[in-house]
Design a protein that fits this description.
The complex is a heterotetramer.
Chain B: H1 2-36, H2 46-56, E1 59-62, H3 67-86, H4 102-122, H5 126-157, H6 162-170, H7 178-194, H8 213-216, H9 222-247, H10 259-286, H11 295-318
Helix pairs in contact in B: 1-3, 1-9, 1-10, 2-9, 3-4, 3-9, 4-5, 5-6, 5-7, 5-11, 6-9, 7-9, 7-11, 9-10
Chain C: H1 2-23, H2 27-53, E1 60-64, E2 73-77, H3 79-102, H4 115-128, H5 132-150, H6 157-185, H7 193-198, H8 203-221, H9 230-236, H10 239-264, H11 270-292, H12 297-324, H13 328-363, H14 374-377, H15 379-392, H16 399-412, H17 420-452, H18 459-462, H19 469-487, H20 489-504, H21 531-552, E3 557-560, H22 578-581, H23 583-593, E4 597-601, E5 612-616, H24 620-640, H25 648-669
Antiparallel strand pairs in C: 1-2, 4-5
Helix pairs in contact in C: 1-2, 1-4, 2-3, 3-4, 3-10, 3-13, 3-19, 4-5, 4-10, 5-6, 5-10, 6-8, 6-9, 8-10, 9-10, 9-12, 10-12, 10-13, 11-12, 11-17, 12-13, 12-16, 12-17, 13-15, 13-16, 13-19, 13-20, 15-17, 15-19, 16-19, 19-20
Chain D: H1 5-22, H2 26-49, H3 62-91, H4 97-119, H5 123-141, H6 147-182, H7 191-197, H8 203-221, H9 229-236, H10 239-266, H11 273-291, H12 298-319, H13 322-353, H14 364-367, H15 369-382, H16 389-402, H17 406-431, H18 447-461, H19 465-478
Helix pairs in contact in D: 1-2, 1-4, 2-3, 2-4, 3-4, 3-10, 3-13, 3-18, 4-5, 4-10, 5-6, 5-10, 6-8, 6-9, 8-10, 9-10, 9-12, 10-12, 10-13, 11-12, 11-17, 12-13, 12-17, 13-15, 13-16, 13-18, 13-19, 15-17, 15-18, 16-18
The chains are: A mainly alpha, B mainly alpha, C mainly alpha, D mainly alpha.
């Protein structure tokens, strides 16, 4: 029992990292969106599996939220925004795919090194989970840093949050407070981003962050 | 009581002596110089006659001369006279010699020069300005040099009191020292500079762009000029006395000397003056005047010599 | 008890400050503020004198529940404090008296009046403070209030710049002192001076403290090369404040130095004195050389403050050397010389700044090239200014000479010092001291001669009027003090005895009992000086000569045009100017020290353009020490400023980089 | 849970927020706003009189009492300032009346969130509260809806969200570290329980957690290089919000950081949090000091000054020890009061001059003496000159740490000096010299500004023993 459950959890967490890598590799906006949906789906599965093995029914709720909001609602909404704004062109990356992947590898290695230092007394499952979660967080951040397009930055941010959820659910018995707050934050984040995108649409013709930068307030 | 009266009398005698002898020294130097140039030269007593003539004349004061201009001759004269009175000439038992040591005497001369330089600026003429500015430039080098010499001598003698220093040299404890030689050389250079002698300045010229001292006092006339001339003469005498007192203290009567000792003192003093005058005249005849901006190098040499002398002493004292 | 009374006085000044905001609106209020300052400072001066003479063996201290809560504000008056309190309040009283007249001409009194009493209070507090916190608070408050006074006339850009440089340098100094106190107090924070005295810092620590103290107090005192603010700030303030800044505040800085190095730091190492002596010697000569190149009267005076601080430091350095080598008597002599010069300089520098202020008021000019002939229109100001000039030029029989004479006497004792470094350094410093004294005389011939003598160079100088009686009273008072301290220095030296006793263990022999009121530092056979007699002799000799000549020879006087070798020119522009007066000295010293260059432009034959002579001077210290700092900061700000204009993504990259670096550190560290 | 003072400081703003969101009319709402903040302040003060019992959600101890009283006080004075400031903004039409309702409601929500963050006994709750405070301020920064304001809000939002995500990750890690020792469930996130068991936590996890918390909450504190949102958010939002941001929100984030620092310090094996904090503090201090020089916008300049001071405070806490901690607390308090006072002055100055550009201001002490001298006094205080309070804290920071870490302290002192240079360079232009720009008299309420400055002045000379004991206890608590 122990071995199987561990392996499945391990596999799911690992595939989350994998999807993160795919996101990093992807340079088309629609595809990226789909990948994000996949990311959320894997997360939902992983959370559900955690709910099952930890025997923590409230985690199913988290899984549902992840599934519904992140895998379906948000991708659809973002899809619409893309269509409306007409920005479905290729993503402008700062770093090429190759270097980005290399960087990503380095980050995963780093998170492994950092996390595996955790003493063996800790739950190995939790430890592995944490390592993967950290990888996902770092990869999400990397994506935010290497993309110029605001939508893909938002996606980066959300995959970062997926990593957080992975970590939180991996932490056995973490009180419900956290789930609520995550849902809460995701909600707020989404709303505010929506508002901002809307406003930005109102004021600017592009959601490219660089366009915003022209209004940095203080000219050189 | 008797001691006090004696000391008082000695002090008074010294004051009168320097006052009376100084024009003579000037006259003597002039005469020797003239003879060396195969001229007849003015009589030996000509400076006295000049002074009397000047004293009798009216003062013609520039229209915008201030009260300070009129006071300065007296200040200068008084300062130098007092300084000269405190240098042991024939006897070291001067009543008030302790009221100013060698540093203070030099500073008194400095005061006199300070005021004289102010006088050069008072009327607001360009010649006066030239004189003053050059005078203070020369002084700015000569004074530190002089102080370094004082340091050397004070370190040798362990005192800055002239009488003590003379006594110490006289006692022969020191013997010959390199430092003393350097100091003497430096002192002579300084004395030449301070008294506006060739090659720094020419006391006998007017209307020469390189003149220093004479340019400063250009606007003085009558009794004021007399006082200034007398002061210059006193200053020359003072420097000769200082050199005599420090480097050739032979013959100087001690503090409680008897009358014969004092007589010997006076006689030896006259001899020293004569020798110094002779040598000065010789030197001045033999050398040409410098351009004014050569002077710093000349005086800088004195400063360096003085510093070297002091350093040597500082070092040798500890060995 | 004395400290309590003094604190009452300080409290009165502090209360006066906010009142002055309201009072400043009316001319009568101005008078009231300065009048009250005068009364309070006089009272404080009396108290300080009493503590110095009557209660010198009793230390009076008090702890108020202010400042650092667990420590309280410690105040104490010992001999050293009492002496400096005298200096501070004497200067303060004179300045207040002067300002009773001078302050009436102030066009923005509300920018001066509130800060003036606060400034006085701060200086008093510095001297009384007995713990590191109170000391530094008062110290920096002193800088702050004086900064406000420096920029009182803020419409002039140069004043603002002066204030800026000043405040920066002041804070730099304060921070250096703060660091030194940090070292002295240790990390458990025993800031009370008593605790610091009781602790014995290690040699390395003490060395660091010494360096910090030299830098910290030195930057306030105006030690080269930390002097750059001084000639900017002192002239910018109203003249009575300039007098306080130059005459008094630099002394408070010296107090800080003495307090730390002689009192708190414990027994000195011999090489400390090398530092102090070298700094002092260089400061003295550089200060006076700078002064010679100036033609702004107040700036010239400010540079002379630098010079005199150098002289004071030479005295202090010698005292340190003697103290380190166990020669307490000699140390007492050197310390007395330094402290006596502190007193003297505060007197004559205040006097000179008052004079400059009176001139400024009468003509609206600080530039000497626009003055001239003022002795005819302001005879009394001219007279007292002359007294100040003679005193600062260290000429007998005034007081400046006495303290320098004492310093020379101390130098002459130094061959007995065993350390080789000092053997070479001390004579060199002696030469520097002599050089600076001679140059100072030259400089004041220039200052007095160009401003007061000669013919008026501008209509403003022609129209000048004698200054008011209050100002004159203040100046006469200080001039009289110069004379008194010059002719009976023995009393002043005796007054310093408790100070030296507390700092080096012994004091100079009692002077007041020496016959004829001479001063005899060690033994009469060694050296002695009697200012009184010299003064009387000169007076007598001069009078006798005058009397004799007038009675026996001629006393006739005729006025006529100037002779000038037959080439008199009515134009006042043909006079020697300040810069032409300084030309020989500039040629001798300036070519190396200031890279002075004279560029002559002769028009071609036939052209009608005038020939031009321009003098180029460069402030090498500024170029070497200050300009690079400014350039470096400018460069750094320009480069760093790019960080204000990055994109959000780039900012995120910074966050990301920080995270990765920290994780890496963690990975490596574990 | 009965309604005690602890609940009061949460309920009053919450209730007021609801009320203000519903009520129209600027005059009434601004007064209500003042009243609500005053009541909150009064309730907070009562914490000193009757200390309520801490529960598993809310906690009161010496540490957060200091913070909460400071927060409620500054928010009270700011609301007074805000009343006159917003009034003027409406007059000139810069702010639409409809937004005012939103503004006031948000103001109270912000108070609620900050108070909650301060008294939360649960690290999850604390995180939620800080998140909430961030979001509220994002909305308020963007309230003018100009290009610049939106850009600033967007930047703030993105950087803040990333920061908050990192902080959450750190929080999770803390839970993970605590779980094996304390057991699953709520207790493993309760502050007061965590502290008692901290020594047995897994050090490696704690280390990683602290890195994330430092960067996460450090973003909110405004530590360089995580600071980028701060200057723009200060510059483009309404000035009362700048005052609250600098004076309070930074403190709240700092408070969170301190809590975790205490936790780490209790574990003997874990990495010492000090060096990390000291490094970040020094970087912030020196960097911000340099950034002061080329600022053209007056509010942005003072925002950088806040970064500098946060650097000093973090440095002090990083160095640790009773004196340095005391100094850090004092510095934080003084900085809050001074900086908000400066922003009060700056707000009115910008209104008088109709611009925030420093180049368009000048000679303020001539044209508007009260504002001008108020600003001078504020800058003198913030530059760390005596006899004002910041001098005392800087004195303590520098003097108590120099003997331990001379090189670091010299860097700090260098930063302080450079900052002083930058501040006074600009102050010369603003307050002195020839007057520039409009010179109309300000319609200002000077009371909050001078009240703050008076307290800062007092503290520099005399500190009440009660306050000192309080600070000392906290300093001991911080280790």
């Amino acid at each position: 029992m122990r071995g199987i459950t561990f392996d499945i959890a391990h596999m799911l967490a690992g595939s989350l990292v994998l999807v993160s890598f795919m996101q990093l590799y992807q340079d088309r906006l629609y595809a990226l969106l789909n990948l994000f949906a996949l990311h959320a789906l894997v997360l939902a599965t992983s959370v559900a599996w955690q709910a099952f093995i930890q025997d923590a029914p409230h985690l199913y709720l988290t899984a549902m939220i992840a599934l519904v909001f992140k895998a379906i609602v948000i991708p659809v909404a973002l899809h619409r925004i893309i269509v409306r704004l007409g920005i479905h062109r290729e993503i402008e990356t700062v770093v090429g795919v190759g270097p980005a992947m290399l960087l990503g590898m380095g980050l995963v290695a780093l998170s492994m090194v950092v996390m595996l230092r955790v003493t063996a007394e800790a739950d190995p499952l939790a430890r592995e989970d944490l390592a993967f979660a950290l990888s996902v967080v770092l990869l999400g951040l990397l994506m935010m840093v290497t993309r110029r397009n605001a939508v893909s930055q938002v996606i980066g941010f959300m995959s970062l949050e997926n990593g957080l959820v992975l970590a939180a659910t991996g932490a056995k018995g973490m009180p419900l407070v956290v789930e609520i707050s995550i849902a809460f934050s995701v909600l707020i984040a989404f709303i505010v981003i929506g508002i901002f995108l809307f406003r930005i649409r109102e004021r600017f013709d592009t959601v490219d962050v660089q366009a915003l930068d022209r209004f940095r307030g203080e000219r050189r | 009581m008797a001691v006090i009266i004696r000391d008082f009398a000695l002090q008074g005698a010294q004051m009168l002596l320097v006052l009376l002898l100084s024009p003579l020294l000037t006259g003597f130097v002039r005469k020797v110089k003239a003879r060396l140039l195969r001229r007849q030269g003015p009589p030996l007593l000509q400076p006295y006659l000049d002074l009397i003539r000047l004293l009798r004349k009216d003062v013609v004061l520039a229209n915008n001369a201030s009260w300070l201009f009129r006071v300065i001759p007296y200040i200068v004269f008084a300062g130098i006279w007092v300084a000269a009175s405190l240098v042991p000439t024939f006897g070291s038992g001067l009543m008030f010699s302790w009221s100013a040591d060698l540093i203070a005497i030099i500073a008194l001369l400095g005061s006199a020069r300070f005021f004289l330089a102010l006088a050069g600026l008072d009327v607001g003429t360009s010649f006066g300005g030239i004189g003053s500015s050059r005078e203070v430039m020369i002084a700015s080098l000569a004074e530190p040099a002089m102080l370094m010499i004082v340091f050397t001598l004070a370190l040798v003698a362990g005192s800055t009191q002239l009488s003590t220093m003379a006594a110490h040299i006289l006692s022969g404890e020191e013997g010959l020292r390199v430092s003393l030689g350097l100091a003497l050389l430096a002192l002579i250079i300084v004395a030449i500079a301070e008294n506006a002698r060739i090659p720094i300045d020419n006391p006998a010229t007017h209307l020469e762009l390189t003149m220093v001292h004479e340019a400063m006092v250009l606007e003085y006339s009558g009794r004021h000029l007399a006082l200034i001339e007398l002061s210059s003469a006193l200053k020359l005498l003072l420097y000769v006395s200082v050199i005599g007192c420090l480097f050739a203290p032979w013959g100087i009567a001690g503090p409680d000397a008897s009358f014969p000792a004092l007589a010997i003192g006076v006689a030896s003093y006259m001899v020293k003056l004569a020798v110094a005058g002779l040598m000065l005249a010789l030197f001045e005849t033999a050398i040409a005047k410098m351009r004014v901006f050569r002077v710093p190098a000349f005086l800088g040499a004195a400063l360096m010599l003085g510093l070297l002398a002091t350093l040597l002493l500082f070092v040798s004292r500890s060995l | 008890m004395m400290v309590v009374y003094s604190l009452y006085g300080v409290a009165a000044l502090v209360v006066l400050a906010p009142l002055a905001v309201a009072l400043g609106a009316s001319p009568r209020g101005t008078g009231a503020v300065y009048g009250a300052s005068l009364i309070v400072t006089l009272t404080l001066c009396m108290i300080a004198l009493l503590s110095l003479f009557e209660y010198s063996n009793r230390i009076s201290s008090i702890t108020l529940p202010l400042g650092l809560p667990w420590l309280g504000a410690h105040f104490r008056i010992d001999a050293l404090s009492a002496f400096f309190l005298v200096v501070v309040n004497l200067g303060g009283a004179a300045a207040s008296l002067f300002a009773l007249g001078y302050g009436r001409h102030e066009h923005s009194p509300q920018r001066v009046l509130p800060f003036y009493p606060a400034y006085l209070a701060a200086m008093n507090l510095v001297v009384m403070a007995d713990d590191a916190f109170s000391f530094l608070v008062s110290w920096e408050f002193m800088s702050l209030t004086s900064w406000a006074l420096v920029i009182a006339h803020h419409q002039l850009r140069e004043n603002l710049r002066a204030g800026y440089v000043y405040l920066l340098m002041a804070s730099f100094g304060t921070l250096a002192l703060l660091l030194s106190f940090g070292l002295l107090a240790g990390s458990d924070g025993s800031y009370a001076f008593d605790a610091i005295r009781a602790s014995h810092p290690s040699a390395a620590l003490a060395a660091l403290v010494l360096i910090l103290a030299v830098v910290g107090a030195g930057s306030k005192a105006g030690v080269v090369p930390l002097h750059a603010w001084l000639p900017l700030a002192h002239p910018a303030a109203p003249s009575h404040v300039s007098a306080l800044m130059s005459g008094v505040m630099t002394k408070v800085a010296v107090y800080g130095f003495v307090r730390i190095v002689f009192d708190l730091l414990g027994p000195p190492d011999w090489w400390w004195s090398m530092v102090v002596l070298a700094v002092g010697g260089i400061t003295a000569v550089m200060g006076v050389l700078y002064a010679l190149m100036q033609h702004d009267l107040k700036r010239l005076l400010a540079y002379h403050t630098v010079e005199n601080i150098g002289i004071i430091y030479i005295g202090l350095g010698l005292a340190l050397a003697f103290k380190a080598h166990g020669m307490p008597l000699a140390a007492a002599l050197a310390l007395t010389a330094g402290l006596f010069h502190v007193f003297n300089h505060s007197i004559f520098k205040s006097l000179l700044f008052f004079g400059a202020g009176a001139v400024l008021n009468a003509t609206g000019e600080r530039d000497m090239e626009h003055l001239g002939g003022l002795i005819h229109r302001m005879p009394q100001t001219a007279f007292v200014f002359l007294v100040g000039c003679v005193a600062i030029s260290a000429l007998p029989p005034l007081n400046g000479f006495v303290s320098e004479w004492l310093t020379f006497q101390a130098i002459l004792l130094s061959p007995q010092l065993p350390s080789w470094g000092l053997k070479f350094l001390v004579p060199a410093v002696g030469a520097l001291l002599a050089l600076s004294a001679a140059l100072a005389a030259a400089c004041f011939v220039k200052a007095f001669g160009v401003s007061f003598l000669g013919r008026a160079r501008t209509p403003a100088a022609v129209a000048a009027k004698e200054t008011d009686s209050n100002s004159l009273a203040a100046m006469y008072f200080l001039a009289a003090l110069c004379l008194v301290a010059g002719i009976v220095p023995g009393f002043f030296i005796d007054a310093l005895a408790p100070v030296t006793k507390s700092l080096v263990g012994v004091s100079m022999p009692h002077q007041a009992g020496v016959e004829w009121l001479s001063i005899v530092p060690i033994a009469e056979s060694r050296s002695s000086y009697n200012g009184l007699l010299v003064f009387i002799f000169v007076l007598l000799a001069g009078s006798i000569a005058a009397f004799a000549i007038h009675r026996l020879a001629s006393d006739k006087l005729r006025r006529g045009p100037a002779w000038d070798c037959g080439y008199p020119d009515p134009s006042s522009a043909t006079q020697y100017t300040a810069s032409s007066f300084a030309q020989p000295i500039r040629r001798v010293y300036g070519t190396s020290v200031f890279r002075a260059r004279e560029i002559g432009e002769m028009p071609p034959p036939g052209a009608t353009t005038p020939a031009r002579l321009t003098v180029e001077l460069r402030d090498l210290i500024w170029d070497a020490a200050y300009a690079p700092v400014a350039t470096a900061i400018e460069y750094a700000t320009e480069k760093l400023n790019y960080l204000q204009f990055l994109t959000i993504r780039q900012y995120l990259s910074l966050v990301f980089a920080a995270l990765v670096i920290l994780l890496l550190v963690l990975a490596i560290w574990q | 849970m009965s309604i005690d003072a602890l609940a009061g400081v949460l309920l009053i703003p919450a209730f007021a927020a609801a009320l203000l969101a519903a009520l129209p009319g600027y005059r009434l709402t601004s007064r209500l706003n003042v009243l609500a903040t005053f009541l909150t302040f009064a309730t907070a003060v009562s914490l000193f009189v009757v200390e309520p019992k801490s529960g598993s959600y809310l906690l009161v101890d010496d540490l957060n009492k200091v913070f909460i009283v400071l927060t409620t006080f500054v928010s009270f004075t700011t609301s007074v300032f805000s009343a006159s400031y917003i009034g003027h903004e409406i007059e000139i039409g810069r702010l639409k009346p409809t937004y005012v309702r939103f503004y006031h409601a948000m103001y109270q929500v912000l108070m609620f969130a900050m108070n909650l963050a301060l008294i939360a006994n649960n690290i999850g709750l604390m995180w939620v509260a800080i998140e909430m405070a961030t979001l509220t301020t994002v909305l308020m920064v963007g309230i003018y809806r100009t290009h610049e304001a939106l850009e600033a809000a967007w930047k703030y939002f993105i950087l803040g969200s990333v920061g908050i995500a990192l902080a959450l990750f750190g929080t999770i890690l803390i839970y993970m570290a605590a779980r094996p020792v304390i057991g699953e469930g709520l207790d493993a996130m309760v502050w007061s329980v965590l502290v008692t068991h901290a020594a047995k936590f897994d050090p490696a996890l704690l280390n990683v957690a602290f890195v994330f918390l430092l960067l996460g909450y450090g973003t909110k504190v405004g530590l360089a290089p995580l600071h980028a949102w701060l200057p723009d958010a200060h510059a483009e939002g309404p000035t009362p919000i700048s005052a609250v941001l600098s004076g309070l929100l930074l403190n709240v984030a700092l408070y969170a950081l301190l809590r975790f620092k205490m936790l780490l310090a209790l574990n003997p094996v874990a990495i010492a949090p000090g060096p990390l904090m000291v490094t970040m503090g020094l970087i912030s201090c020196v960097f911000a000091a340099f950034m002061l020089y080329r600022r053209r916008d007056i509010k942005r300049m003072f925002a950088y000054s806040s970064i500098e001071h946060m650097g000093i405070i973090v440095f002090a806490f990083g160095m640790g020890g009773p004196l340095a901690n005391f100094a850090g607390l004092l510095h934080m308090t003084m900085h809050s009061l001074t900086k908000s006072a400066i922003f009060f002055a700056v707000g009115h100055i910008a209104q008088v001059k109709g611009t925030q550009k420093i180049a368009d201001m000048g000679g303020l002490t001539v044209t508007n003496p009260v504002l001008g001298w108020g600003l001078v006094l504020g800058v003198v205080a913030i530059a760390g000159l005596p006899p004002l309070g910041i001098f005392m804290s800087e004195f303590l920071v520098v003097s108590s740490t120099f003997a331990r870490q001379p090189v670091l302290v010299i860097i700090l002192v260098f930063g302080i000096l450079v900052a002083l240079g930058g501040l006074f360079l600009r102050l010369n232009t603003i307050a002195f010299g020839e007057p520039r720009g409009p010179t109309a008299p300000a319609q200002a309420s000077y009371v909050p500004m001078f009240a703050h400055l008076a307290i800062v002045f007092m503290a520099g000379i005399y500190m009440p023993p009660a306050l000192v004991t309080g600070f000392q206890n906290v300093a001991k608590l911080l280790g």
